[in-house]
Amino acid sequence: MNAMRELSVELGERSYPIFIGEGLLEQAGELFEKQGIGKKSPVLIVTDEHVAVRHLDKLVDVLQRSGYQTESAVVPPGETSKSLAVFEDLMTKALQAGLDRKSTIVALGGGVVGDLAGFVAASYMRGIKFVQVPTTILAHDSSVGGKVAVNHPQAKNIIGAFHQPELVLYDLNTLQTLPAREVSAGLSEVVKHGLIWDSEFVQWCDDHGDRLLALDPEALGYALYKGCTVKAAVVSRDERENDLRMILNLGHTIGHALEAVAGYNELLHGEAISIGMVGSARLAVELGAPQEVLTVTKRVLSRVGLPVRLPEHLDTDRIMEAMMHDKKFLEGTMIFIVPTAIGQVEINKSVSTELVRKIVEQLKQEAVQA
Amino acid sequence: MNAMRELSVELGERSYPIFIGEGLLEQAGELFEKQGIGKKSPVLIVTDEHVAVRHLDKLVDVLQRSGYQTESAVVPPGETSKSLAVFEDLMTKALQAGLDRKSTIVALGGGVVGDLAGFVAASYMRGIKFVQVPTTILAHDSSVGGKVAVNHPQAKNIIGAFHQPELVLYDLNTLQTLPAREVSAGLSEVVKHGLIWDSEFVQWCDDHGDRLLALDPEALGYALYKGCTVKAAVVSRDERENDLRMILNLGHTIGHALEAVAGYNELLHGEAISIGMVGSARLAVELGAPQEVLTVTKRVLSRVGLPVRLPEHLDTDRIMEAMMHDKKFLEGTMIFIVPTAIGQVEINKSVSTELVRKIVEQLKQEAVQA
User: Fold this and answer.
1) Greater pLDDT, A222 or A349
2) Measured between CA atoms, how close is A82 to chain B, in angstroms?
3) Which alpha helices (DSSP H) does chain A contain, by range?
4) I need a surface site. Which of A80, B106, B198, B282 has the fewest CB within 10 A?
5) How is the cofactor bound (chains A, B) (predicted)?
């Protein structure tokens, strides 16, 4: 077993630690206690049916042995659980379980469970404590930073809050059963954190892509630690997304449009973002950045098994239209996060719609590397 | 016309002003602008059917003349609108109206509208700006302090947030059409603010009760100013109800139980709280406070037309049972806010259930003053 890594999200009195390591579920009781999660009031664990089968019994057992009273709520897997209807069911469950103002809600699962359980914690009795126990690589992103939400039938993540957890507990062992495609998709946001902030880490990903794909615990622990470090640094400087936090959207303007047009089955979020990041790199080169920005971006994404070319059958007009509906669109020009070098980006608020269309067309011809 | 009164709720970067005066609706445009409510993004006014008839057209007209784009949403009057279903309808309305992150939601109405619209503002896109335009006396209490919520079928106010408004705009003219019974019930929380914090103001209410009942604008403006001042002082010291803010619950432990047992039609909130405050004063005397605490409390509440005796037909066992379900109950003893003198209270965490039962019985025999 490798050593546990720890880092802190610095937000004044709302600061909290992230623990990353193998076998951390077994230490949940001690770590909860260390972070001041009380034992007098019941704890509600929220998870989904897939994760429940693998990890729920263990977490319940560990917490109960440490003296916690736990209740569990298991929701169906997938994005459809991020609804106000499931939110209300969880409120009922919280009431029935006797949760009070000193209770804690634990999100055991991926991003859907974290967003949903987090918004329940943000709203129950106007806000109670909350712990993130992510079980996917992708959730290294959503579990840090306090953004929680459910969907409205007409818009994703439109009903939510900023509610920071008390701690994030990342057990690398829970990642060992992830399907290969989800591993790569999760690494997309890891690489993104390098591309916006840390060129050395991008180089490291380039050198160690195969270890990551093989779920080597030491490599995975390091990569998640670095990814969380960047996310924490950005969030510490701009908790409520007034300016800097926007750089976390690298690749997301094109990516969200691709998800919407392709349907959520053809492209996973991480895959769409990967293509979007190649688009941003192309845009960067068009705007004067060195060619290396594009070649390195493509190479490192390919290394971790991610697509860099836009599927040709996706209609450019529909992609452009989907982008127009995106929040980042503003009167004729578009807001883009654009790399200036590897590990550096800027917020460009006046990218012309025509240039974006050209990039989308180019992305369909992108050379795929071996 | 009397001068406008202004006071500030001091909460660091979340500080905001309360404006109280006659004809302030006509000045809404300027006051919004002064507080930084932007004109580029649409404003959504939320109100109920009763208030809409009287004041909506004027507010819309004034804001549009100042250059604001407004949309309106009218909900049914009454507590049943504080539901997740109406909350979701308002989210749909906000989306359709094109509200963005710089938009503002205006609550025009009493406590129900303020709580509901406030929770929509707290959650839409994880929180947008919010303005309170209270149109009842009771709402002087709920519109200050940032507590917003909707009800769960099994519990009041259980789903909510702390979300401070940008400003509170209190037009005394909107109060002139209130029915007499609601005037008295609203004054209950005004008197409460005196009883917990300011003995001179209690004396003033005692001296000027008839002017308040006659809705004399100068007296009403002063009383609301004083009530809001106390509320603001308490909230500034304890925004999230960790300790001090609990003193605002004077009379509420018994009061909530009476509301639950009597049904929400027999006793208005303010009436139930009035009887609860007499109960707290009785409790205080039992615990050693001077007799004057009881006599003055009863006298001032009577002066503003409020009941001081508990209706005999309400069953003591059921009242006790309702109190046990209250959040303020803890293992055999109860938490009560207890006066130590007029204008001073303490938080007593070990009041015996037996003593409370005795007080409830005594409240049924309370002598009513002329």
Assistant:
1) A222
2) 14
3) 28-34, 49-51, 57-65, 84-96, 111-123, 139-142, 180-197, 199-213, 217-237, 252-266, 269-286, 292-303, 316-324, 353-363
4) A80
5) Binds 1 divalent metal cation per subunit. Can use either Co(2+) or Zn(2+).
Asked if B88 reaches chain A (Cβ–Cβ under 8 Å), the answer is yes
Residue to mutate among A102, A159, A164, A328, with most B CBs inside 10 A, is A159
Residue ranges of B 229-268 with Cβ closer than 8 A to chain A: 240
Residue A328 has pLDDT above 60, yes or no: no
pLDDT tens digits, B207-232: 999 999 999 999 999 999 999 999 99
Same fold, A5-175 and A180-363: no
More confident residue, A222 or A3: A222
- Within 8 A by CB and 6+ apart from B22, the residues are B1, B2, B171, B172, B173, B217, B221
Per-residue pLDDT tens for A154-200?
Answer: 888 999 999 999 999 999 999 999 999 999 999 999 999 999 999 99
**Number of C-alpha atoms within 13 angstroms, CB side, residue B286?**
18
Is the minimum CB–CB distance between B122 and chain A shorter than 8 Å? Answer: yes
- Within 8 A of B84 by CB-CB distance, chain A residues are 84, 87-88
Within 8 A of B88 by CB-CB distance, chain A residues are 84, 152
Active site residue A231: yes
- Which listed residue (B22, B55, B140, B189) is catalytic? B189
Q: Which tens digits make up the pLDDT trace of A226-269?
A: 999 999 999 999 988 888 999 999 999 999 999 989 976 789 99
ipTM, interface predicted TM-score of the complex? 0.93
CB A250 within 8 A of CB A188: no
Confidence class for position A369, pLDDT limits 50, 70, 90 = low
Which stretches does DSSP call E strand in B182-295?
none
Give me the CATH code for the B5-175 domain, please.
3.40.50.1970
C-alpha closest to that of B225 among B168, B173, B183: B168
Residue ranges of the domains in chain A?
5-175, 180-363
Q: Which fold has domain B180-363?
A: Dehydroquinate synthase-like, alpha domain (1.20.1090)
| Contact call for B158 and A91, based on CB within 8 A | yes
